[in-house]
Write a sequence for this structure.
């Protein structure tokens, strides 16, 4: 698996990005391209096998008030997406997902977005709803998406009832014909909160 992260600060960056994606594709390497601003990149699904557009709008927190810089939010998004994918595969928990599952869902399309939201454990469904609304806030068409990879992260304080209620909301939002994988990652640093990260591809 290969992650390509770029901010396109250099005009020469896009050709390098495309060349690396093409080389990886020729070698049948599962590749995820991550960019902070989807308006900069040409919508060419041939660049990489699964191309992810990540912007600060995908985050749980809003951008700074007064039109401040969003570099910090973009940086978080570009770190959080690959970390989530890796955790889903490697972090053995109550619900385990392997690499083949992740690859299958994320290559169901070629362009994707990320939505993240946090809520108290007792309101776990609100985290899922918030993450879907973050996707909608990026003008992402949930009803036409072909694949969803969902990571529910919480401490050991979460119960299966809490998780089931969040999962029920997720199933309500996801189109019946779309591929869906929901994972549960235990992270004691979450305390009394639950974080829902939704990677949706179309």
């Amino acid at each position: 698996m290969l992650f390509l992260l770029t901010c396109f600060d250099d005009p020469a960056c896009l050709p390098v990005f495309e060349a690396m994606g093409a080389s990886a594709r020729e070698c049948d390497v599962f590749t995820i391209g991550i960019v902070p601003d989807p308006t900069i990149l040409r919508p060419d699904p041939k660049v990489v096998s699964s191309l992810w557009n990540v912007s600060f709008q995908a985050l749980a927190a809003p951008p700074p008030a007064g039109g401040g810089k969003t570099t910090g939010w973009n940086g978080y998004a570009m770190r959080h997406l690959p970390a989530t994918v890796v955790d889903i595969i490697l972090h053995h928990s109550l619900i385990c997902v392997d690499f083949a599952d992740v690859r299958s869902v994320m290559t169901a399309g070629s362009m994707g977005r990320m939505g993240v939201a946090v809520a108290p454990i007792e309101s776990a469904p609100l985290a899922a709803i918030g993450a879907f609304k973050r996707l909608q806030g990026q003008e992402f068409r949930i009803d036409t998406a072909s694949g969803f990879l969902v990571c529910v992260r919480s401490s050991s304080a979460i119960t299966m009832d809490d998780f089931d209620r969040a999962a029920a909301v997720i199933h309500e939002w996801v189109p019946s014909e779309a591929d869906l994988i929901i994972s549960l990652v235990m992270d004691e640093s979450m305390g009394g909160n639950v974080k829902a990260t939704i990677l949706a591809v179309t």
Observations:
- Strands lie at 2-5, 31-35, 50-53, 111-120, 147-154, 179-186, 193-201.
